[in-house]
Amino acid sequence: MEDLRKYLLQPIINIFKFHKFKIFFVLFLSLIFYVLFFPYHQLSSMIENQVNKASRGQVQISFNNLSLSLIPFGISAENVSLFTPQMPSPLFMEKAYIRPSIGDLLRFKNGGVFTAENIWGGTLTLQFSDLGQGPSKNNQSEMVRLNANFNQINLAKLASWYKAPFSTSGLINGQFNITLDHKAFEQPVGNLNIKGTKVKLPSLIKVMQMDLALPEATWKTMSIQGKLAAGQLNLAESLLGVPSDAIYGKIKGSMGLKFLSLGGRLSPRPSQYDFAVDLNLDKSSEQKIGTLLETVLLNGKGGKASTVDGGARYLLGLKGFPGSNPNIEPLSTF
User: Fold this and answer.
1) Which of 247, 304, 312, 317 has its CB 3.0 to 4.6 Å from that of 217, i.e. a possible disulfide?
2) pLDDT tens sequence across 299-318
């Protein structure tokens, strides 16, 4: 038996023993071909057509200069444009990278890192990994973990892409991580942390079906932290500006936020909210909008305290449902 094994394996051993340099040379030339001479342009067109076909025209994607990198292993593309009916306008990225996770590939799972450069003027890095079945008894749950970092996102470009009914500016950085179920048998669990600098407030906002003109003001810094669990978004005490800003304050509270699976897509469904707001105005801002806040929004119920510099502090409670006028009540403490 031992002689038979040697007889069968010896030719294979001899190939690697006497021709290993030839084998490595062929592999090296193959890698050079894939990196330098592979017809990526034709592959790009095929990918664009297949995505459009598979989504029945719902997802439109285009890009240029598709290329392969070996270290680290991944695929990159330039001038990427993506659009779906759920987006307010096409999303543009100057350059995008996809680097699969070798560990997840060895476990036959999806996973990797997606990086987008010059998206809304900044950079977005999204790490994703399949987790398999969740803690639910339903064996059809498909859990996935997403970790995202975003840097130097331009709020003016983001508002323009979203077609927001107001103008703003400033930069935001932050991260969020979330574990969710594609089939929505499990509600997502996650954390959110956003920091902003030189955030310019909109000059006009709509409150209770009224247009409220705000004085020109900018938050030097902004910090928002939140947690999502059991269909509820809980906002920790978050800072909006600093005391030297014309308008600054703090906000905390909660809002119902459940995710449903509709047509194979996860769809968020916000519900009742309950927020507390500590709003501070300097003298100039108080003169411009103080009367409206006190007489119209609070309806003379109180909640206002004067400050030593001639400004005012408002403690407000906001309750209601998205899409309807909030119930605004004065608070004694924040």
Assistant:
1) 247
2) 666 667 766 577 888 888 98
